[in-house]
Recover the amino acids of this structure.
């Protein structure tokens, strides 16, 4: 894959991804980062000038591990990922609003959406890189950084499951009203990823669509070190 990251994202089977999002609430996609690009992100992890903030999960009782928010301007490949994934996901977000009886409200470009974030006082970039060593995990949560948020986010795995690390599946738990929770444990190959809801998704019921709340996390890493890249589209306060 020698073409640009944005071209690889555009070349994904978006019809199938939209179907998966509507039918199961998440969608797994094939690699859009090369092994060399994944290694470059991992190699830059110690470079503190690249990041605006480092979070120790244990300190905040988020889990056991560490993540770092990228500083603005974002690295070129990360910026391409953010810009390329946004338009087709904005179309899905507006479709979901219509299913819930609301007017479509998400603009077609990332820059226009970020203007809305900035007008609301949300100006800090939110894409991040996450590191878990053996015993590490991430508690179930939602990434809401202010009143304005985008209903999808993307996670990409940067190293090799069962080679560089074991365990550490991506977890997605859906809670439907008056029903028990449903969980998914998702395995990803290096450079590939998953699209999932930030907060909720519409589910077809007997009287139309209703909201089902979702939270995500990471299962315990049993060996090695796991790195991943989180692409969040809304900025933070």
């Amino acid at each position: 894959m020698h073409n640009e990251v944005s071209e690889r994202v555009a070349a994904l089977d978006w019809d199938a991804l939209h179907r998966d999002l509507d039918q199961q609430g998440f969608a797994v996609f094939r690699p859009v980062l090369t092994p060399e690009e994944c290694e470059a992100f991992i190699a830059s992890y110690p470079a503190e000038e690249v990041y605006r903030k480092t979070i120790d999960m244990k300190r905040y009782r988020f889990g056991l591990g560490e993540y770092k928010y990228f500083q603005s301007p974002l690295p070129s490949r990360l910026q391409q990922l953010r810009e390329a994934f946004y338009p087709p996901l904005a179309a899905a977000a507006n479709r979901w609003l219509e299913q819930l009886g609301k007017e479509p409200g998400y603009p077609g470009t990332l820059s226009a959406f970020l203007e809305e974030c900035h007008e609301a006082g949300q100006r800090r970039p939110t894409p991040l890189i996450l590191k878990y060593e053996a015993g590490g995990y991430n508690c179930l949560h939602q990434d809401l950084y202010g009143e304005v948020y985008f209903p999808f986010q993307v996670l990409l795995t940067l190293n090799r499951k069962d080679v560089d690390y074991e365990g550490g599946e991506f977890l997605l738990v859906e809670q439907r009203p008056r029903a028990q929770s449903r969980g998914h444990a998702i395995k990803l190959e290096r450079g590939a990823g998953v699209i999932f809801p930030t907060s909720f998704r519409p589910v077809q019921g007997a009287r139309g669509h209703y909201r089902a709340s979702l939270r995500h996390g990471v299962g315990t890493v049993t060996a090695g070190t796991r790195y991943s890249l989180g692409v969040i589209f809304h900025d933070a306060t």
Notes: The first strand starts at residue 27 and ends at 29.
